[in-house]
């Protein structure tokens, strides 16, 4: 069973925007939103054409995102490739 080894990097964060930061700036659309648990960046999911949440991880190495979708309460660790509920 896979375990996330980055839980100590979770911070009390506030979403940086009410939608995907980059998509809002460019006027683009997203499918679902993800919240970086290190800095609060809001990015779009990998089902969105721009995949800004993953691009944020690659640029910053901030490992954990949480779903910002209503009714969803899970997190994903990019480094360990594990979902946490």
Can you tag this structure with a few keywords?
5 strands; globular; 85 residues; Herpes Virus-1; 20% strand; alpha+beta; 5-stranded antiparallel β-sheet
Layout of strands and helices, then pairs:
Elements: H1 21-26, E1 33-36, E2 42-44, H2 52-60, E3 64-67, E4 75-77, E5 82-84
Give an account of the 3D structure.
This protein has 85 residues and is of the alpha+beta class. It has one domain: Herpes Virus-1 (2-Layer Sandwich), CATH 3.30.40. Helices cover 18% and strands 20% of the residues. It has two helices and five strands. It has helices at 21-26, 52-60; strands spanning 33-36, 42-44, 64-67, 75-77, 82-84. A five-stranded antiparallel beta sheet has the order 2-1-3-4-5. The longest helix has 9 residues, at 52-60. The chain is globular and about 40 Å long. It starts with 20 loop residues before the first helix and ends with a strand. The mean pLDDT is 97.
The level 1 CATH classification is Alpha Beta
Sheet with the most strands: spatial strand order: 2-1-3-4-5
The CATH H-level homologous superfamily: Zinc/RING finger domain, C3HC4 (zinc finger)
Quaternary organisation = single chain
CATH fold title:
Herpes Virus-1
Element-level helix/strand string: HEEHEEE
CATH architecture: 2-Layer Sandwich
Largest sheet: 5 strands, antiparallel
Structural class: alpha+beta
Give the uncertain stretches in residue-range form.
Answer: none
Q: Report the radius of gyration as a whole number of Å.
A: 12 Å
Portion of residues in beta strands equals 15-25%
Number of helices: 2
Helix content: 10-25%
Dominant shape: globular
The mean pLDDT is 97
Distance between the termini: 14 Å
Count of beta strands: 5
């Amino acid at each position: 069973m896979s375990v996330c080894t980055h839980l100590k990097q979770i911070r009390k964060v506030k979403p940086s925007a009410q939608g995907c930061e980059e998509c809002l700036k460019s006027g683009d659309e997203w499918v679902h939103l993800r919240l970086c648990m290190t800095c609060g960046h809001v990015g779009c999911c990998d089902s969105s054409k721009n995949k800004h949440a993953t691009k944020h991880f690659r640029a910053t190495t901030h490992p954990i995102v949480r779903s910002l979708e209503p009714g969803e309460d899970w997190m994903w660790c990019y480094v360990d490739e594990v979902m946490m509920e």
